[in-house]
Structure formats: structure tokens, C-alpha cells
């Protein structure tokens, strides 16, 4: 496991020499200490990416495609190793982590193919003395800010597309899961990508706002892509205004699960179990409320309770039988606990669970 940031093809410490600890949610033990980078380090990464862009943008699409394909092959060879890193720092059950690696790797494979299919357009002119055509060109340095719930997939989905198009990247992974990003940087280095086209800036929760601000306001950054909360997305939106950056936002979900009177209850229960408990419910499309028609309410609740009792196994996320791991951190644990307590206070009936599972670890619920 790498424990240094990756800037301009080198493994580096923060200029301040400061670090922050990464903990495993399973038992709260420290896994590693990584560089706690700030705005100064972020500028270094942007400068490296900007210099690299000048050459990378002119590399033939066939060569970019070949490098991406090589990266995909190396990622595939290291599937289990990367999945273990994901499980260790995110608390995700190992079987889910393996599935995430397969899903994320597929984006690299897809964009390796798309690199040679970046096509322009022509338009018919109303004046026979003119010809209209469009060329698609890489925009420049792209800053990628990613969350902890899919630390592998969301980096690769963004970065593979940018690299295929000829852009260079600066990645800011979530402070809870920086090791997965560093593992990806290591495999990219093995694939032979030029220095500076892919950079990883690690920073603690305290320093993340200053790094994000630099990404949004630095004139060498052409685009910002962010996946995370709506409140942070609004802040980044405002910070990108002065430089009128291209901005891609994938923000918090608000997902109702609706069971109509005509529904197949077995199918509805199976879908509810899959969607609600994936990654311990820590997914943007995870249902946050169930709207069940009164005609099917009792049947749906009884079947879902039964399935939860016998199909969900809470425990060590490295146990192959486990499909419910810990929550990511104390803040998330407290949030879930308060939601349950609030619901019970307002009249909700607990059919199963509804309390901390301290026998497994401090962040299990």
C-alpha cells in the first residue's frame, strides 16, 4: 500500500511534512499515515498536470488508447489486491469491493476504445463559399474530486474519460479512502503513462476546503468534476464562477422506493434488499424512504423482515459470508443512530435490528 501522494510521476510528501491517519472502519485501527497536503501542494500538482498536458494532448489517440488498455490489463491483474485495499479503508465487504473493481476497470476498458473514436462534425452551409465543421479537442487540466463510497469506480470513471480525450488530471480522493487512489496511481505508473498526466493530492478533512478552492480558482484548471454532497457542490459551483470553468456535478440522491398495489411483492422485497443494503446503505441511489400501498404493506414488511433476518450477515468485511460491514466513520454512525431514534420517537415500529451492533465493532449498526 502506497502512503505518499503522487505528483508529476513521483511519490512525494506534503511540503509541510504533515500527515493524517487513515483508519479501518472495521475496528478503528490505523492503517497508514498519508501526506496532509494543502493549497501549496495542490498548486504543485496543477502545474505538473499543466506542463504534462502540452505533450499529452498531442499524443496520437491510438497511443493513448494503447496506454489505457495496458492500464486496464494491469488493473485486472491486481483485482484482488486493490479490492483488499478498498475493503480495508472503506469497510465495504470484500465481495462488494471485488465487484466494484470489476465495474471500475470496465470504464478504463471502455474509454480505451473510445479514445480512437473522438470525432468532429460537419454541417451544410447555406453559402457555397463557406464550410462549417467542428473539432473536439481536450480542454486541459481536469480536477477530479471523489467520495469515499466508491473510491475506485468514481476515480476511474472520471479519469479514464479525461485521459482518453487527451486531458491531464489532478485527483483529490476522499480523506477516508485515499489509499485506493494511490493504488490506482501505482498501477497507472506501471502502465507507462507520462509524468504529470495523473496526479493524486491527499488531504485531511481540515485541509480539503483549501485544496478544493484552488482547484476551482486556479486559471490552469479547465474543468472540475465532483461527486458528493449537494452543499459542497453548491460551494464549488460558486468558486468556479470567476474563471467560468466547465463543471460536472453528481450530487446527493433523494430516492423513494415505491411499491404500488399491482407490484410483485417477492420482486419488490428482493429489489429493496439489494438497493437498500448495498455498501451498508451508503450509496447515493440507496432508498431513503419506502412508500408502500396499504394493500401490500403488511406482506411487504413481513417478507422484508424475514429476508433481512436470514439473508443479511453482519460481521468482518473480509469474511466471505459477510454482506453488511461497518459504516465509514463516526459521523455516519451518529447520523444513522439519530435517524432511527427520531423515527421511533415519532411512532415507527422496529421489526428487526435498530440498534448498534457493538459486538462486531464500534461502527457497526
TrEMBL record:
> GO MF terms on file?
succinate-semialdehyde dehydrogenase (NAD+) activity
Keywords, A to Z? Oxidoreductase
Q: Which GO terms describe its cellular component?
A: mitochondrion
Name the SUPFAM superfamilies for this protein: ALDH-like
Query: Which biological process annotations from GO are given for this protein?
Result: gamma-aminobutyric acid catabolic process
* Transferase in keyword set: no
Q: Which residues form a coiled coil?
A: none
Catalytic residues, chain numbering: 250
Q: Does the record carry Oxidoreductase as a key word?
A: yes
Instruction: Extract the Gene3D superfamilies matched here.
Output: Aldehyde Dehydrogenase, Chain A, domain 1 (3.40.605.10), Aldehyde Dehydrogenase, Chain A, domain 2 (3.40.309.10)
List, alphabetically, the InterPro entries matched: Ald_DH/histidinol_DH, Ald_DH_C, Ald_DH_CS_GLU, Ald_DH_N, Aldehyde_DH_dom, Aldehyde_DH_Superfamily
The segment(s) forming the Aldehyde dehydrogenase domain are 11-355
Regarding protein family, the annotation reads: Belongs to the aldehyde dehydrogenase family.
Q: What is this protein called?
A: Aldehyde dehydrogenase domain-containing protein
Which organism does this sequence originate in?
A: Homalodisca liturata
